[in-house]
Amino acid sequence: MHEMALCEGIVDIVEQEARKGAFSRVKTVWLEIGTLSHVAPDALRFCFEAVTANTIARGAALEIIEQRGTAWCLSCSRSVEISQRYDPCPACGSHQLQVTGGEDMRVKELEVE
Fold this sequence. Notes:
Elements (H helix, E strand, L loop, with lengths): L1 H20 L4 E9 L6 H11 L9 E7 L1 E5 L4 E5 L14 E5 L3 E8 L1
Parallel strand pairs: 1-2
Antiparallel strand pairs: 1-6, 3-4, 3-5
Helix pairs in contact: 1-2
């Protein structure tokens, strides 16, 4: 389950920001997660609670903002939304798509005290 390692990375980011911003508690963490990122939001929520238990983010809410997958169709020259890799172009049916978005995960915002 790579979500555990991802949560450990999130805690590292939160702790770095706490040192920079001199805050003592994190109330909410907002994450942007792309639908093509291979991250399971439910597993991430479960791991987040376990990983943050003895940290500055103990008890913090985890808010997930889903980012849609996007691709450029080489056949019809359109930017299109896709829900998973290897989907055909919804405009022309071609499979010649280059993914342009929805693969990332990032900490978007922290609510702190």
